[in-house]
Design goal:
Helix content is about 55%, strand content about 10%. By secondary structure, the protein is of the alpha/beta class. Among the domains are: about 150 residues, no CATH class; about 80 residues, no CATH class. Strands 1-2-3-4-5 form a 5-stranded mixed sheet, with helices on one face. It is elongated and about 85 Å long.
């Protein structure tokens, strides 16, 4: 695994609750899996081979900060005219358990920002007015919250609207996907890899046996992915590993990780899962170390910083090389220089064997 890939995984571990689903949907085939579950007719007319991610630099600051929004531009097959037209796919991932009563307004506001960006582009390119054609937008709300969503997604519900004026309120359709409410059998009806992962997400609060059942089913079905889908397989499995770390009780996690590994037949893939577990642990260690450093600086306690770094290094070595000897632990605890501990931590991340670190420790006086 290259350094950049490793760093991206560590960043995801730290920001898992906010970024994880968006990270999965950045892969076009996972977006396809979501759309197949929502509306198969629409999903099958989208060209995913040439799909384009749209950066949100044109969105005002308060919307740009939302990590849960993702935009794509894709070709859509119009079967009536046998032509392809461009469509914008806008997915808003809503994690909040509380229902947002002004969701329809938020979606409309965002859509107008997208069209405004098109208008400015036409003006800058001096495109004749007769050639202006705004892209249709497919807005999707991916709701993962626990509360029943009983709020209307029609803009007119936010107005005190006499019946005679109803036709003057903006009308548009929002596709609403409630992960927790959809029947499990319907969720995996297309047998797409992303659907199996969503089924695990749906069961995050199930009892241990029920969760194990859907986890095993997901991993076994992901094993059917073709070799050319290896990159996405890694992404989906890494998500499951981190989902276990963030959503299940710590007392269950070791058993659940073992279940993931035992349901993977390919040796290379099984080793990859072990690497994923270490990546997650390493990220949490580094995060804890950083928090310890900040706390130590605030209190002016240099010894607190040193102790935090010593413990982080010891934990990392125990994770990477099973159990280390008392002599190594004692030697690490004798080090009082922050720079030396930082150097050893970096070496421990990259070391292929424990003896590389032992050799370095022996040179320390």
């Amino acid at each position: 695994m290259n350094k950049s890939h490793q760093e991206n995984r560590i960043l995801l571990v730290r920001e898992f609750p906010d970024r994880a689903i968006r990270w999965l949907l950045e892969t076009p085939d996972n977006l396809r899996g979501l759309l197949l579950t929502i509306n198969k007719d629409i999903a099958e007319r989208i060209d995913y081979t040439n799909i384009e991610r749209i950066e949100r630099t044109f969105i005002e600051d308060d919307f740009r900060k939302r990590e849960a929004d993702i935009l794509f531009k894709a070709k859509f097959l119009d079967e009536a005219n046998k032509t392809q037209r461009e469509v914008i796919i806008y997915v808003l991932i809503e994690h909040q358990s509380s229902v947002d009563p002004i969701m329809s307004f938020r979606v409309l506001y965002y859509m107008t920002q997208i069209w405004e960006s098109q208008r400015r582009e036409w003006e800058s390119q001096k495109t004749p007015l007769r050639d202006w054609r705004f892209h249709p937008i497919l807005p999707v709300i991916f709701y993962t919250g626990k509360e029943n969503w009983n709020s209307s997604l029609e803009l007119k519900s936010l107005m005190d609207l006499p019946s005679l004026l109803e036709d003057f309120a903006p009308q548009f359709k929002i596709i609403f996907f409630n992960l927790k409410a959809i029947p499990p059998e319907q969720l995996v009806k297309n047998k797409h890899p992303f659907e199996w992962v969503m089924q695990v997400m749906q069961k995050e609060e199930a009892n241990f046996d029920e969760f194990v059942e859907v986890l095993q089913s997901a991993v076994q079905n992901l094993e059917l992915m073709r070799p050319e889908e290896q990159a996405n397989w890694e992404k989906l499995i890494f998500f499951l590993v981190e989902f276990i770390s963030h959503r299940r009780e710590q007392t269950e996690q070791s058993n659940l990780f073992s279940i993931v590994e035992s349901n993977i037949e390919d040796n290379f893939r099984r080793e990859e899962v072990k690497s994923m577990s270490k990546t997650g642990a390493q990220a949490l260690i580094e995060e804890g170390m950083e928090k310890g450093i900040e706390k130590g600086i605030e209190k002016g306690m240099e010894l607190g910083v040193i102790k935090t770094k010593q413990e982080a290094l010891i934990r990392l070595l125990n994770i990477r090389f099973d159990t280390i000897s008392r002599e190594i632990t004692k030697k690490i605890k004798s080090i009082r220089k922050v720079e030396r501990l930082d150097m050893l931590f970096d070496q421990a991340v990259k070391a292929g064997e424990l003896r590389e670190i032992e050799s370095e420790l022996m040179n320390i006086r």
